[in-house]
Amino acid sequence: MSQLTHYTTNFKKRTFPIVLVSDQVSNAPNIGSLFRICDAFGVEKIVFCGENIPVFGRKMTKTSRATEKVVPFEITTDIHPVITQLQKENYTIISLEITENSQSVQTLDFSKFEKIALVIGDENFGVNPETIYESDTVIHIDMFGQNSSMNVVQATNIVLYEITKQRILAN
């Protein structure tokens, strides 16, 4: 059995109706990793919201592995007009945050949503409370250790895997 390369895999290229909305994620390696996983999971677009988002630069491009050239993206300072516009376009707004009413990612049927805007939050403070209030659904990842959070990129990976898995199985 030989290992396949980027050029010899037989993965079928697909784009899903998913927009990743990044609320104040500002660590350059995290941004590069977000590009990479959005490419891997067929996300249609990333919207980076906040001030001084380092979308270009050596630290970001080192982790993105050139995926910033193929994943469409926008940069804006204020998340709220983005949420309003996505709602007008019939996206279901799903925030990834632990709250008293959040639902486990394992229990949500993502296949029932035609279009999804997945909101992820700042590395230290998560999704801001106003955005949580604007969301249609808030989800969290069940954790079984002492810590109550994980890296934003790793959490986004888990949720995008679950969303795309359910969409593929539903078709």
Summed up, what is this model?
This protein is an alpha/beta fold. The protein contains five helices and seven strands, in the order βαβαβαβββαβα.
What can you see in these coordinates?
By secondary structure, this protein is an alpha/beta fold. The chain has a single domain (16-170), classed as SPOUT methyltransferase, trefoil knot domain (Alpha/beta knot), CATH 3.40.1280.10. The protein has helices at residues 28-40, 58-64, 79-88, 129-134, 152-170, and strands at 16-23, 43-49, 73-76, 92-96, 103-104, 116-121, 137-140. The chain has a 7-stranded parallel sheet with strand order 3-2-1-6-4-7-5. Helix 1 runs parallel beside helix 2 and helix 1 runs parallel beside helix 5. The mean pLDDT is 93.
Key features of this structure:
Alpha/beta knot; 171 residues; 5 helices; globular; alpha/beta
List the helices and strands and how they pair.
Layout: E1 16-23, H1 28-40, E2 43-49, H2 58-64, E3 73-76, H3 79-88, E4 92-96, E5 103-104, E6 116-121, H4 129-134, E7 137-140, H5 152-170
Parallel strand pairs: 1-2, 1-6, 2-3, 4-6, 4-7, 5-7
Reported CATH architecture: 3-Layer(aba) Sandwich
Along the chain, the helix and strand elements come as: EHEHEHEEEHEH
**What's the domain count?**
1
- What is the global morphology? globular
What is the CATH topology descriptor? Alpha/beta knot
CATH class: Alpha Beta
The helix content is 25-40%
- The total count of helices amounts to 5
Number of beta strands: 7
Class computed from helices, strands and strand pairing: alpha/beta
Mean pLDDT: 93
